[in-house]
Amino acid sequence: MIFRSEDMIYTAYYHRPAEENGMVYCRALNAVAEKDEDFCRKCPLSCKSGRKHVCFYFDLSHKEDFPPEKEKIFHDGIIYAQITPRFPLFSALSERWGEMNNNEFLNNWEHSERCKIEKALNQAAEKYKDDPAAMRDCIERAYEVSVKITRTDEICNLIDEILKGVE
């Protein structure tokens, strides 16, 4: 059971996936998966931190690094308890902390557009909650569309790509 305590707080934090036998817990997919830097680069949670990949988002955090399986159990619990959404929040990062999550997926989008992207990704995550491969495909397709868009008025194209097959 998950309880709010001084050890767990809802905050923006860096998550360095703990690797075990080549497997990591991926928060975007909410799954234990093989480490894949190419996919990580395409993910809206990806953040540049020197040479290491980290994820950066709002979520209920904890003080220790969990192995991948335990991380999955932890997040399943806080998602089930509706403490955090299925796809974690990231749009407020730019507003409160400046441009810290400057990956290719989000480069062209202002705060209001990022909120729309975040909402669409949550809809997709609900639809694909038991199918990490489908969610991965959704993120990769959306990434391919996002890097080709140069004007913010084309946000509907990206939202359509994320929601393809969801509604």
Class based on secondary structure composition and strand pairing: alpha+beta
Strand content: 15-25%
Q: Kindly report how far apart the N and C termini lie.
A: 32 Å
Mean pLDDT: 80
In order across it, which strands form the biggest sheet?
A: 1-5-4
Instruction: Identify the overall geometry.
Output: globular
Please provide a brief summary of the model.
This protein is α+β, with helices and mostly antiparallel strands and 167 residues long. It is built from six helices and five strands; from the N terminus they run βββαββααααα. Helix content is 40%, strand content 19%.
Which key terms come to mind for this protein?
5 strands, 167 residues, 3-stranded antiparallel β-sheet, 6 helices, two-stranded antiparallel ribbon, disordered N terminus, single chain, alpha+beta
Kindly describe this structure.
It is a single chain. By secondary structure, this protein is an alpha+beta fold. The protein has one domain (8-163). Helix content is 40%, strand content 19%. The chain has 6 helices and 5 strands; from the N terminus they run βββαββααααα. The strands form 2 sheets. The protein has a 3-stranded antiparallel β-sheet. It has a two-stranded antiparallel ribbon with strand order 2-3. A hairpin with a 4-residue loop joins β2 and β3 (31-34). α4 packs parallel to α6 and α5 (132-146) runs antiparallel to α6 (155-163). The longest helix is centred in the last third of the chain and has 17 residues, at 111-127. The chain is globular, with a radius of gyration of 15 Å.
